[in-house]
Amino acid sequence: MDHLKIESCIDFLQCLAADVSLSILICLDDPADLVRAGAVSRFWRRFVITNGLAKQACLKMYPLLADIVSIVKMNDATTRLADYESNNAMEWEILGRDHKVYASLLQALKKSNLSPKDCIEDAIWASSTDNYPDESVVNTLNPRDRFIRTASYWSSEGQSDPYIPETLMYKLRDGIWLVTEIDIQPFEAFFQPGKPIYSAKSVRFRISHAKSPREIEMNLKHLPVQKPADDMFGWTYTSPEFPMTQENRLQPFKLPEPVLCMGGYLQIELLGRVQRQEMDGLFYICVDHVRVLGRPLYPAFDVVIIAPRGKLLLKYNPMAFSSVLKSVSIDEITHMR
To answer: Which of 103, 179, 184, 289 is surrounded by the most beta carbons within 10 Å?
Structure first.
């Protein structure tokens, strides 16, 4: 009876048109489901791999991954063409390798639970600075409000209009990061009467990748740094507007969903001013410290820019894959905050 049941089963992948079958299986976005689908039969495995379903699931989750144009897997021999009798065999091996890499990447993107780390590499630009370089945006990388008995903070220029915004820009660390939270501490002017706190009314974030890394590097050599042109960046994410409180503490702004960042840039828009300086009657915004929390996918995954317009090479180390999936304790997250 079991034999008759098996013979009576219909494999819909072989009965339906390929585009219809693809429309059905492309709905699978869980890496475990893709593995199970590839294990049904040889025909299913070939269909899953040939159509790059693991890659499409990654792109559906984070379209920015479309910039990856090549893959390198450590200890991989698929690049040696002489090992195979035909180009078709070589092509199938490459497709199979890419499927495994993207399936692993999908699992890392969905299941990574590493302890968050600060992923700011450098502070590169501010829309205005009151006293450069003493009140430069670079001071916001220091978690303390004093450095060698001197106040450490960034200050905007004073404005009579409290609605004029300010912008800060930061370079994020290389590699693949899932940015989850951005923390900002307004500066309390402890040396002024009443210790006023120069916070903004609200804040908004934009994350990008650089289209022209060399052009930006050339621009950073001129101090004070000039505003990088907008066409140098590909802005991939804009956050909601978050209200900021006029309090001297590191205020966490948790993003609605983790944001993928691959060696990118963060732009902080400080919207509105609340504190007027007693000395000149002008409104200022001052920031003590900025921190960007993210989960790194390194050392399992890394990216390298291989073209001047932002195309990427994805590097995968399967020996380090388990380290990306290790769990994080509540104590670690609390300590970071």
So the answer is: 184
